[in-house]
Amino acid sequence: MVNQAPIPVVVNGAAGKMGREVVKAVSQASDMTLLGAVDRNPEYNGKDAGEVAGLSEPLEVPITDQLEPTLALATQERQLGVMVDFTHPSSVYDNIRAAIAYGIRPVVGTTGLSIEQIQDLAEFADKASTGCLLIPNFSIGMVLLQEAAVRASQYFDHVEIIELHHNQKADAPSGTAIQTAQMLAEMGKTYNPPSVEETEKLPGARGSVADEGIRIHSVRLPGLIAHQEVIFGAPGQIYTLRHDTSDRACYMPGVLLAIRKVTQLKSLVYGLEKLL
Ligand SMILES: NC(=O)C1=CN([C@@H]2O[C@H](COP(=O)(O)OP(=O)(O)OC[C@H]3O[C@@H](n4cnc5c(N)ncnc54)[C@H](OP(=O)(O)O)[C@@H]3O)[C@@H](O)[C@H]2O)C=CC1
Ligand SMILES: O=C(O)C1=N[C@H](C(=O)O)C[C@H](O)C1
């Protein structure tokens, strides 16, 4: 049997809340090797990625703020590499383009990409025949919630989404809420037909209106991690679906699955549910 070389992985945003978890998970996966760790935060420049992630032993991978040289390094490996990105909505588009240009497959958790940017990235990945995964939520619980919501939408015409996150989150609504609304909108109906003429006494009181009349409300508070409710209403009944995260480790099985799967793809795929 031929020994498969471990998948070389570059973690971008390695010093962040998610990046640290990914550094731990990748370094503990026997079929992966942490090849590079990138983060723009100057506080961590030159520090060992493993120590920053809280591992007891150093990984001998210093954090650098130079993405492109790190991607170039990954191209020199026996097996082509993967870049996992948990950075910021303002930089994720350029990071993905850079990775694809180097032939490195992006696995992206960073949210905040516009529909136009996603379409453009899909074309770019297609032309380069490079796998690219955009995953708004890596937790299995959220995939199950979304499945249940799609099923419920066959029977309910009224639905609102509430997403609740820690107050360090840069984008609103969350990528997960946007994806959930898209899935419900794809069911081919318009939700929330008005029953009275409404006046918002304070702008935004009724939340934002996503596709097909679905409303999304965003809550930001210290003490929260990531939570989402999808609430369906009909005369005489309320059906509530809720997902809560209490530890970012919940995303890691999904991240590792995505790293393995992206090496077999030649185009862009959006959503963890497509990998299961
Ligand atoms: N798909 C999913 O399942 C999940 C997605 N997310 C998403 O992941 C993203 C990151 O979240 P989180 O880890 O909580 O955020 P953090 O702010 O904790 O971490 C982001 C890290 O990336 C760094 N960074 C920002 N921009 C760049 C850049 N251009 N190049 C290199 N490093 C950069 C930040 O540095 P600095 O501190 O200097 O800004 C920080 O160290 C968010 O978009 C969030 O919504 C989060 C959880 C789950
Ligand atoms: O910023 C976060 O924390 C999260 N972001 C993702 C999103 O915007 O949906 C996924 C999860 O909700 C955590």
Automatic annotation (TrEMBL):
Its EC number is 1.17.1.8. Gene3D superfamilies: Dihydrodipicolinate Reductase, domain 2, NAD(P)-binding Rossmann-like Domain. The active site is at residues 165, 169. Pfam families: DapB_C (PF05173), DapB_N (PF01113). It catalyses: (S)-2,3,4,5-tetrahydrodipicolinate + NADP(+) + H2O = (2S,4S)-4-hydroxy-2,3,4,5-tetrahydrodipicolinate + NADPH + H(+); (S)-2,3,4,5-tetrahydrodipicolinate + NAD(+) + H2O = (2S,4S)-4-hydroxy-2,3,4,5-tetrahydrodipicolinate + NADH + H(+). GO terms for molecular function: 4-hydroxy-tetrahydrodipicolinate reductase; NAD binding; NADP binding; oxidoreductase activity, acting on CH or CH2 groups, NAD or NADP as acceptor. GO terms for biological process: diaminopimelate biosynthetic process; lysine biosynthetic process via diaminopimelate. Transmembrane segments: none annotated. Its main location: cytoplasm. It is found in: Cytoplasm. Residues 141-276 form the Dihydrodipicolinate reductase C-terminal domain. (S)-2,3,4,5-tetrahydrodipicolinate binds at residues 166, 175-176. GO terms for cellular component: cytosol. The keyword Ribonucleoprotein does not apply. SUPFAM superfamilies: Glyceraldehyde-3-phosphate dehydrogenase-like, C-terminal domain, NAD(P)-binding Rossmann-fold domains. Keywords: Amino-acid biosynthesis, Cytoplasm, Diaminopimelate biosynthesis, Lysine biosynthesis, NAD, NADP, Oxidoreductase. NAD(+) binds at residues 13-18, 109-111. Residues 7-138 form the Dihydrodipicolinate reductase N-terminal domain. PROSITE patterns: DAPB. It is an enzyme of class 1 (oxidoreductase). Catalyzes the conversion of 4-hydroxy-tetrahydrodipicolinate (HTPA) to tetrahydrodipicolinate. Belongs to the DapB family. This is 4-hydroxy-tetrahydrodipicolinate reductase. It comes from Chroogloeocystis siderophila 5.2 s.c.1. The lineage of its organism: Bacteria, Bacillati, Cyanobacteriota, Cyanophyceae, Oscillatoriophycideae. The gene is dapB.
